[in-house]
Sequence to fold (433 residues):
Amino acid sequence: MITFLGISMVIVFTYSIMAKKLSPVTALVIVPIIFAVIGGFGLELGEMMLNGLKEVAPSAALLLFAILFFGILIDAGLFDPLINKMMKLVKGDPVKIAIGTAIIAMTVALDGDGTTTHMITISAMLPLYLRIGMNPLVLATISLLSISVMSGMTPWGGPATRAIASLGLDANEFFLPLLPTVFSGMACILFVAYILGKMERAKIGTIEIEFSPHSLALNEVAYTLQDGIKRPKLRWLNLILTITVMVVLVMGLMPIPILFMLGFVIASIMNYPDLEQQKERILYHAGNALTVVILVFAAGIFSGIFSGTKMVDAISNLLVSVIPESVGSYFPVAVALTSMPITFVLSNDAYYFGVLPILAQAGAAYGVSPLEIARASVLGQPVHFLSPLVASTLLLVGMVKTDIGELQRYAFKWTLLCSLVMIVIAIVTGAII
Fold:
């Protein structure tokens, strides 16, 4: 009975999101409550949900303060010199332009928001692509790959945050073993940019142009320019702060949520000592941060009920019974490979909150850590970001004036390449096996 109830709950949850019958937050809260009541767990719901909220609270704090931290630094103009320098260096060489695009996109994607990344990258670079005749699909592919790695695998980005929240994991333990894999993904993006740039150079050659921000129509949207928020005199202090935060993160000296909370507080005081301006900057980024934090807490409700009712145990036992023991030790590899097609047809919410707990519980039967399953689950993100279910991708195709099908045909082999490279590196470095 519990197995049937759990499978039915996952199906209803997935359908309600895919068919847009319910918002992800509503589905995460309402669907498990209904099925728990049907299963006779009504009196135990409060404790289950509270336990779920306790599990995801660190993830919610991490996401909130990481978004605010990087948002403040972008507002203050920390990355502007890099963007301007890249624009001056690339000039009319398609190879340099493609590689410059990758560097800019990966840098901006550190805030974990795909929409912001595409807005800044496309707004900054598209006029240059059009001016020299480069294919805008090159720009779209590089921007998409950048957000899939930098946002998809960092613990303050959407997919990884969902995986951590869904399984109640520690962000440090999840992320640090993944660092070599993240670096391999970044290297793959630069390689793809180089190849695509070479292909464009073969078609149109190198065109000599002089850099001019006005001639390239670098507008206010591209750099979130607003009067009085840039802090060029504090650039070095902001850089030192950023490097310090990254070093502490890599060394694991402090819980990541606390680290980003302190980083955000220091960055906001240092750049915007005026309380009204601090408030303005927080409100400017609050929409994106609050939306995802609410989603994480809703995920806590779902996972608390899913675990508390033992539905996840029952489904996992069923799954284990049909998986040959000979492949049990390679279960994380199977999760990594299947995450590509599954996350293409499922939203991240449906996959990480509905499917991943089942996979993690099944893996536990073979002695596989939930951390390995969680890491494996994010390795298919480059392919996932080609899905029409990804809102930022729909924005991307609109900005480069193409359609989703054309982008999929052009970019699929490159997204597949990046996913496979990261899976191989994750295996070699022991992140998933």
Q: What stands out?
A: The CA atoms of residues 137 and 402 lie 8 Å apart.
